[in-house]
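RETRY 2/3 - previous attempt timed out on the joint model. Re-submitting the same 772-residue input unchanged.
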Amino acid sequence: MQLTLEFGGGLELLCDSKKIHNVNVEIQNGEDKLTMKDLLSWVRTNLIKERPEMFMKGDTVRPGVLVLVNDCDWELSGQLNTSLEEKDVVVFISTLHGG
Amino acid sequence: MQLTLEFGGGLELLCDSKKIHNVNVEIQNGEDKLTMKDLLSWVRTNLIKERPEMFMKGDTVRPGVLVLVNDCDWELSGQLNTSLEEKDVVVFISTLHGG
Amino acid sequence: SSHSSNALEPHMIYRYSRHLLLPSFGVQGQENLLNASILVVGAGGLGSPALLYLAACGVGRLGIVDHDVVELNNMHRQIIHTEAYIGQPKVKSAAAACRSINSTIQIVEHQEALRTSNALEILSQYDIIVDATDNAPSRYMINDCCVVLGKPLVSGAALGLEGQLTVYNYNGGPCYRCLFPTPPPTTACQRCADSGVLGVVPGIIGCLQALEAIKIAASVGEILSGRMLLFDALSARIRIVKIRGRSMQCEACAENTTFKQQQFQEFDYENFTQTPLSVGPLRLNLL
Amino acid sequence: SSHSSNALEPHMIYRYSRHLLLPSFGVQGQENLLNASILVVGAGGLGSPALLYLAACGVGRLGIVDHDVVELNNMHRQIIHTEAYIGQPKVKSAAAACRSINSTIQIVEHQEALRTSNALEILSQYDIIVDATDNAPSRYMINDCCVVLGKPLVSGAALGLEGQLTVYNYNGGPCYRCLFPTPPPTTACQRCADSGVLGVVPGIIGCLQALEAIKIAASVGEILSGRMLLFDALSARIRIVKIRGRSMQCEACAENTTFKQQQFQEFDYENFTQTPLSVGPLRLNLL
Ligand SMILES: [Zn+2]
Ligand SMILES: [Zn+2]
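RETRY 2/3 succeeded.
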């Protein structure tokens, strides 16, 4: 499945300082769909190069990270259970505190 | 065909000061598609309430109006010949000069 | 608000004529502004443009909270301060600048750090709060105080080459804790002093904060509530995304919450976020 | 550019430390800025924040062109000017403000109206031009002069509650005439004085102009060329759209054009747009 993943608010530093990743994520054998839970584990394995604890805590993102699926907060689409579709855009962004 | 039409930069004043119009434009008998040329004539008839010369000149938009089909300048898609598809977003915006 | 209504005097008609000409703003919008009070917490990178535009546009009463002094390394982004004010309190400097561009509005100086002990008393004097601070505990504290007092909060942040903006606790919309119930790890809370910031980025976000505060005060337009603006300066890209609504589990704003003024005053924001509310200037360790 | 290279002196390291800390900006970005020269045409609603942020960030030489004087009805949006300067030239007022926030850069005052007779000479002294004017003939004239001289043009506009921004003539991208070969009817060219403008809207666009100019000067990031930012303040919506590339038929910038310095100097922009290049203050006809 072709997806665009974007990292911001400093999270890009965890994946070679690259903000936009066009990726192809395979649906696992026996599954009929790709969920955000699957994607997080794929990102953790394939994109995060350092300090994974800055991206995840337990099986979800760490506190302070917003997840957006097609410009919409994943809280509105079922969080970890959100089903992804071809060409979806998923944004992971860390909240900023500076001024 | 369901389209979203948006007017900005003052052009909204020509259609009841309403910026966003969700419209249903029928493809004419004998035609197999809707082009921007058709849409302009539909807008001219159905939405423009006053001073049509501020919107069109001849069979196209007046100088100083940018036309965007799905956030892309219509010069890049064939101008008047651009074919429209279901749920397209067409923006008409007048260039501003103030500061 | 505790103000009496201002009618537009002739000098105001002249000063604000470009606002009065706007069909969607007009006399009513300007009168609403003149009768409104807005507090900006932080006279730094975000607060500088926010304060200047709020003063210029004619907000009736404009408050400034800050405990810091102007430093040379602020000057690349904190355009409200002049070199002549280096070493002096930011509140004093910012208030002088606001008065110099609009002598007809009331400017209130709160030259102190905002803490649980004074926040209720200060924030309660204003209709709208602008969070222009630079650290996580202040953001939680200001949010909670706004929730307890029922005030809309225009929240901006900037770091590096990115900025974020939304309005919390507005008209049934979410609060900061609805989005971020658990504070991030302290390692994720970088300050401009640690990581740097391109000066004009808080400039853009601060202007957008002024705009949202003006729209709320004037009762015009659609407020950026339930939506968040994400700005990436390097790529010149801006997203406006839909965020969750008010959370039924929110400790601060849920309907059945027990979090009231007393709980607010007793809450330890520094311990909650494991971050001090204010920090002295860091030594530079560069080059 | 005619400057010699500046190395970072200790006081600059301190002043610009938040820029130097940025991995994607850093020492090289700051040195590029210090060696750059930028001209802002117009010290009004757009020019005010653009000039303040360009001065603050450390552009080596910053020029200001304007022929107008500060008026009370400018003050709601032209935050670079203080009441003390009402009646005095905007260039003088803006230059003083820029110097007060950064005494270490060079500020050049061009207290005159920009015309075909002086534009080549003035613009040729700068690397980057910021169009912060308020009328159609100036926009065509500045564009054509930038094309003839090969200078990038950061173009912003604001009216009512909307703003627009793009960079013209940058790195093979389109110029203003590629987009608008024919001037609009004069009835479509409203000025802020006629139609009004919410003060903070040019504030936001002017800050974004400063950002694009800084990115060009520092050689960082993706420039807003071939793209246009459309800002709607009332609904808090921003679009960044893709626009056409350079036009092969463009009278100003096409490869085979005969439009050179001499043709520029002889071109009648007021006749072309049926609009005067500068207008005195209009009488208010309000309420
Ligand atoms: Zn809440
Ligand atoms: Zn051209």
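Residues 2-94 of chain B form a domain with the Ubiquitin-like (UB roll) fold (CATH 3.10.20.30). Closing ticket.
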